[in-house]
């Protein structure tokens, strides 16, 4: 007993519609992948090139009605701007938030700032820095 083949003879009827669809999908996938790669590169460049200010909280010391924050800011020589810092209580509620401005020609600023709070703060969180 022989087994019947369901495949068409090769080369007899041309390319199948599945092969044409596969080729179109490969082309569409390549184009969309390249577009996505360019888009990610654009946003990465924009973030790195436009971000002229970065900062970090080195230490903080909570008091009854304030938090002492040691803030280190790195920036371009002529950049001016501000950093926003907040403090939270033990229950997670926000008890203080303030913007601290800086400027000048220094590229690194090491500053001890005082964040006034409405209750005892347990944290000091840097929310972000923005150039003017």
Helix-strand layout with pairing:
Blueprint: H1 17-50, E1 53-62, E2 66-75, E3 81-88, E4 94-102, E5 108-116, E6 125-131
Antiparallel strand pairs: 1-2, 2-5, 3-4, 3-6
Gist of the model:
This protein has 132 residues and is of the alpha+beta class.
Structural features, described:
The chain has 132 residues and is α+β, with helices and mostly antiparallel strands. The protein folds into two domains: 11-50; 53-131, Immunoglobulin-like. The chain contains one helix and six strands. It has a three-stranded antiparallel sheet with strand order 1-2-5, with no helix packed on it. The chain has a three-stranded antiparallel sheet with strand order 4-3-6, with no helix packed on it.
């Amino acid at each position: 007993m022989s087994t019947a083949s369901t495949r068409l003879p090769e080369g007899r009827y041309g390319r199948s519609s599945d092969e044409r669809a596969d080729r179109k999908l490969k082309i569409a996938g390549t184009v969309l992948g390249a577009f996505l790669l360019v888009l990610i590169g654009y946003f990465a460049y924009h973030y790195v090139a436009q971000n002229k200010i970065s900062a970090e909280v080195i230490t903080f010391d909570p008091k009854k009605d304030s938090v002492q924050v040691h803030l280190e800011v790195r920036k371009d020589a002529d950049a001016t701007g501000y950093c926003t810092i907040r403090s939270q209580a033990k229950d997670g509620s926000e008890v203080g938030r303030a913007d601290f401005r800086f400027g000048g020609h220094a590229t690194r600023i090491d500053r001890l700032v005082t964040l006034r709070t409405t209750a005892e703060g347990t944290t000091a969180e840097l929310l972000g820095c923005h150039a003017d």
